[in-house]
Structure formats: structure tokens, C-alpha cells
Amino acid sequence: MLIKKNLGQNFLSNDALLTKIVDCGKVTSQDIVIEIGPGTGNLTQKILNKSPKKLIVIEKDLNLSELLKKKFGEKVEVINDDILKRYDKFDFKVPLKVFGNLPYNISTKILTSFIKINNLNKKFKKFIFIFQKEVADRILAEENSKNYGRLSILTSWKMNKLKIIDINPNFFYPKPKVWSSLITLTPKLEFKNLKRSKHLEHVTNIFFNQRRKMIKKPMRQLFNDFEEIAKELELDLNLRPQNLSINTYLEICRFYEKLTQ
């Protein structure tokens, strides 16, 4: 089989790990399941063993899509497409469970695309994703840590996060040069509403592009009356971006949104 490096293909082959991944999803006969990048279908088979109501796989590689159709027949709906063109096109009456051994090169884009969906918690029940460990560390990071940043904040805004296990490169074919991590993400039932998620992306981008600077600089960049806003938020302008909580960033974003009305 020809491996396409440009698609970030690294296939899971360890049976015990595949079982652990599926167990994280707690798949039942009532569930509609999406799998992103199924590859040769090793995880797909494990999901099928749980007898979900419906299983849809999204595979960008045409050759692999044909292989999957031959392997599973009508048991699985195979869609040959890019998930970044499909992520917001699912319309079912029940929230979906999504599995994905995500391509390293677009994993953060896939995640942030899902986060930006309106009514996320009504459309999706749980995400069971494998990321490059470095990316997973950034997703899971808390304030006052070196990995805390835009991705931590965007994910925590709408998702509850849980790390399951780090994965040795030997469990993949071809073998990647880095470790991976399995994490679960569960949409929050309640979170602070913003007019547009791109506003939070913009605010956090300005702060973390200057993560070693005191927050006085990005605050001045965002607001003419930054000192008054800092006083209202009880913000110490001598702090660094990694010292601010997620809720603080959401409050800063709300002030910013007032300027964009």
C-alpha cells in the first residue's frame, strides 16, 4: 500500500490500543458514530463490533475509500472527502460521537473547526481524538504553564478535556518520529456565549503573539481605554498572557465585542 505523506497517514495497528480507544467512546446501539481518517479500517472494525446504529467514515484518500467499501460493504457509509469540508454538514436528530486518529498537519484546524460550530453540544456528544503529543499538551494545558495558550483557551471555552494515554510511535505504521496522545473532549452544556468565535481567536492571538511581554501591551493594542477596562476586570497589567484564566480571556473578549457592534 502506498503511504501518502502529504495526508499525514500513520495507521494504528496495536489491537489492545484500538480496543482502549473504542472503550473511551462507550459506543452503544443507539449511537451514530463518525470516524475521521479511518485508513485501512482497523479502528473502524472495533467500532463496528460495538454495533452502533450507524457508522460513517470520512476518508480523503480515494484508494483507501475504495478499500474500505470492499472491506465493510453496506455496514459502513464511506465518504471520500476532506473532513474540513464536511465537519458542519452532519444533521442528525441525536448528537454524534466522533473518533479520529487525526493527521498531524491539520489536527488543530480540525479541532478548532468543530469548536466554532454553533450549538456544538446539541450536535456532538463526544470526541475521541489522537493528536501529536505536543499538540495534546497545548490543548490540555492550564494557566500558568508553558504550554498554555490559544489552543488551551479555545478548547476549554466549549469542551471538557481528559487525557487518556500517551502513545508510543511503535504502535503506528509508518512509525512517526514523535509520541501521540489519546484525549477525549466532551462539549459543555453551558458556556459563556460570544457573538463570534473568531473574536476569541483574535484576542488570544494578540496576547500570545507576545507571550513574554506584560499584558499591558496587548491590552493597549485592543483598547484605547485599556487602563479603565483593566481596572474594571481587576487586571494587573504587569502579568504575562499565560497568567490569565480562561474566564478572564472571555471577559476581555466581551469588552472587545462591544467595539465591533
Task: Give a short summary of the structure.
The protein has 261 residues and is α/β, with parallel strands linked by helices.
Structure write-up:
This protein folds into two domains: 180 residues, Vaccinia Virus protein VP39 (Rossmann fold, 3-Layer(aba) Sandwich); 63 residues, Helicase, Ruva Protein, domain 3 (Orthogonal Bundle). 38% of the residues lie in helices and 19% in strands. It is built from eleven helices and nine strands. The strands form two sheets. A seven-stranded mixed sheet has the order 4-3-2-5-6-9-7. A two-stranded antiparallel sheet has the order 1-8.
Based on secondary structure, the structural category is alpha/beta
- The tally of domains stands at 2
> How many E-type strands?
9
> Over all CA atoms, what is the radius of gyration?
20 Å
- Which percent bin holds the helix content? 25-40%
Adjacency order of strands in the biggest sheet: 4-3-2-5-6-9-7
Q: Return the string of H and E elements.
A: EHEHEHEEHHEHHEEEHHHH
Low-confidence residue ranges:
1-8
Taking the sheet with the most strands, its summary is: 7 strands, mixed
State the name of the first-level CATH class of the largest domain: Alpha Beta
Distinct helical segment count: 11
CATH architecture classification name of the largest domain = 3-Layer(aba) Sandwich
Percent of sequence in beta strands: 15-25%
- The CATH superfamily of the largest domain appears as Vaccinia Virus protein VP39
What is the CATH T-level topology of the largest domain? Rossmann fold
Overall spatial form? elongated
CA distance, first residue to last residue: 54 Å
Mean pLDDT: 93
